[in-house]
Every structure is written in structure tokens, then in C-alpha cells.
Amino acid sequence: MDRVLLVDQDPATRVAESLWLIDAGFRVWTADGFAAAVPILEAEVVDVLVCGIAVRDSQGQRLLAHVRDEAPSMPVIVVTAESSVGEAVEAMHCGALDFIAKPASREAFVAMVRRAAEHRHLQETSALTRATAVVSGTLEAEDLVPLVLNVAREALQAEAAVVTDASGRIVAGGCDTANLPMGQVSGDRAPFRGLVGSRWVLGLPLVARNRLYGELWLVRTAGPHPFTARETERATVLAGHVSLALENAQLVRDLRERIDALGRARGRIAAAERMESVGRFATRIAEQLGTPLAYVRSQLRELETVTDHDSIGYARAGLERVERIAHDLELVAGSRDLLGFELSSVVDLALRISGAQVTKGRLEDVLLHGHPGRLAQAVAEVFDNAVGHGGSVTVSARVVDDGVELAVADDGPGIPADVLPHVTEPHFSTRGGSGLGLAVAREVAEQMGGALRINSRYGSGTTVVFALPAQAVTGEFPTEEEPM
Hints:
It is built from twelve helices and 17 strands. By secondary structure, the chain is α/β, with parallel strands linked by helices. Helix content is 49%, strand content 21%. α6 runs antiparallel to α8 (229-304) and α8 (229-304) packs across α12. It has helices at residues 11-23, 34-43, 58-70, 85-93, 106-136, 141-156, 184-188, 229-304, 310-333, 343-354, 372-388, 437-447, and strands at 3-7, 27-31, 48-51, 76-80, 98-101, 160-165, 170-173, 192-196, 199-208, 211-220, 339-342, 359-363, 367-370, 393-400, 403-410, 451-456, 462-468.
């Protein structure tokens, strides 16, 4: 039932027009002037104002100004004895929706009020449509809930709003929730509308495909304006769109988590394949060097029995260098066994593998447990990556409470903040490389029970830290020379 406030100084006109509207199905309040009309506007929910006072009259001007300031969306019809064009223009200028001259016929009067009420409904529907479009177009859960609160307050004229999750925990909004029958609408899966204490409240379940996402509560804390059945219908429509939007946001979040998990899995596979490829290559080279080195070694021993020429010493030094390289290759190839090893030996091996110009800083040595060849290869990848950015590179290590931190620092250009979260992702590169170096480093660090941290500020260089757990090795683990 649409609600109309009829303001006219003539008692007979008020009675006649109010009876016409009541017979047509409207609920009607009447007032004889501005002073009597304002309390009704403040106390009741009025859909249409019919002003029978001339707009040139001070009371008519004050009444239209009050509505324009306090309820700008309320349609106003001006009914006056003066039917001049100037009067009509002035009425529209004051915010009137329509204008009719006295004496008006019953049919014309009722039809005009009905059009004004339909105009109000159209405004409300348009506001709801805009609100649901905004809500439905939002796929980020963290953005959705605050948006819902704003939309609910604007579209349904609520002073406060609260959104809870399925467990009843308040996730957004703010007002005194004492005495609110929270949880009731979830159990009943139906709206709650009524007076709680001194507040009018409207509670709605947020349900999509029989899944409860929470509750939406709207509160009117000022004035005796209850939520109407029509407003409840609009709020129910809004709640339905909110529920679907929450479901979509959950689906998007789940999809992103699966994509991230797939990316991490691909990264682990790519890193493992790269390490495996390096290992196979190193194994083949070491195996192929084994026989020639043994032959050269035996020939040197024979020569040493017949001559002590200086060239024999040079040859022996060259042989030892090649043997060291073969030993490094064997370490890189590694085995499936875990070894106890010194961190300093891994740094030296990484420097030999990389060949990069890296300055040794303070190295607090510690015994580690794992695959020294894999760690050395990972550290070498970081050396190469740091040198590739230009500037000087320093490696250092320090013992911490739960292990050791091996840091590779450069004074290059640094990494932009928007790029930093992605640098350990497989195949991510800003220089056209394979994009696996830091992904390999992270994988190896995590395999050893540690983590890879990257600290960088654009323009101030980068530090890559292997945070590794330390273990005291006192013989229970084999060393490189004593495989399990």
C-alpha cells in the first residue's frame, strides 16, 4: 500500500481528496500546513507528497524546501488554484514532480498520484538494480563485504548494517548488536523484520545453492520508521545477489589457490628436472674423466721413477686440478644419500662452479646435513643471478638460533616492489633467461627444511638469504669421502 501525505489549508478539499485516495487503495495522512506536515514526514514513511498550498505562499515554499533537503527522492505533486505557466515552472523549480490545477477531477487527481507512486517505485527499483549490478560485478571477497554495507545503507535507507559469516562472527559493519536475534534467520532461512528495543531491524540470510554464507542485518536507529514489506522484498533481492556474489568470490579464491598450487608444483618439477639434468651431465663427465685420469696418474708415477724434471711437477699440479674438477662434478651429481658437510666447502664449490667474481665476507662455518652438491649448484645459480644485475657481489654466513643464514648480497639496481613477489616463480625472468635460477634455489632450500628469503628495495640492491637448519655432525652422518 502506497502512502500519501496530503497538505491543504482547505478542510473540504483535504477530506474530498483523501477519500478519493483511500478508495483507490492508498494510505493517507492529512495536514493543514507546514507546521502540521513536518512531524508526519519525520514520523512516517511517506511515498508521495501532495501539496495543495501555492508555491508562492511562504508555507508552500518552506514545505517544498524541507522535502528537497530531507527527502530529495520523494515525488511531490503541487495542486493550486492558479493554473498559469509561471506557477507550473516555479513548482518544478522547487522540486515538484508534477502540477495540477484546482478544481481537479477525481480521475485525473488519482491518476496523477498513482503515477507519482510508480515513479517512486521506479526510483527504488533503479537504485536496487544499480546496487545489485555493482555487487554482482565484484569478485574480490575483501572488496565485496564493505561494498554490500554501503549499498544496503543507500538502497534501503538503513543507518547501520552488519554482515556476519556462517559461524555468526561479524566480518564487516558496525553497530550495537546486543539483543539482535542473530542466527535466527540462518536457522529459519527467512527474513526477520521487527522492533528490537528502540530500533527497527531487518535480518536476511545470505544463502546460495543451499549453502549459508552468513547474515545481513540492517538497522534504523533513529525515528519510528519500520522496514516495510516492500523494502523487505527489495532487501531479499539484494541479499540473493550478495549470496551469489559471495559464492562467485569463493569460487574465484579457490581457483586462484589451485592455480597457485599448480604453479608451485610446476616450479618444483622444473627445478627438480634442472637439477637432475645438471646431475646427469656431471655424472657423464665425471665418468668419462675417470679412466683418462687414472691412466695419466699411472704414467706420471712411471715417469717420476726415471726423472725429476720440473715438467713432472707441473704435470702433477695440472692433474690435481683436473681431479679437483672431477670431484666437484661428482658432488654436483650427488647421490640420493644425505651427507654431513661444512657450509664453507659448499661456498667454495659454488664459487668454482659459477666462476663469478664474488667477494667472501665473514663466513661463520657450521655443519649441515643434506646434499652438498645440490646446495652448491643452487648457491651458484644465485651468484650468477646477482652478477648478472651488475655491481659487486658478496657472500657471507652467520649462525642464528635455529640454524645458519647464508646471504648473497649485491649492490645492483634492486627489484621493483611489484616484481619481487614473482622472482622465485618458475620461468619468471626480467632479463630473458630461463627464469629457473631462483626457483631452483628456493626448491633446494625447502628440501633441506629451510627457506629462501629475498630482501630488495628498488635502487638499493638485493640480498638473497638461504635460511638453513644447522645440525651438529659428530659421526652419525657420513661425509663426502665416506658415502653411506
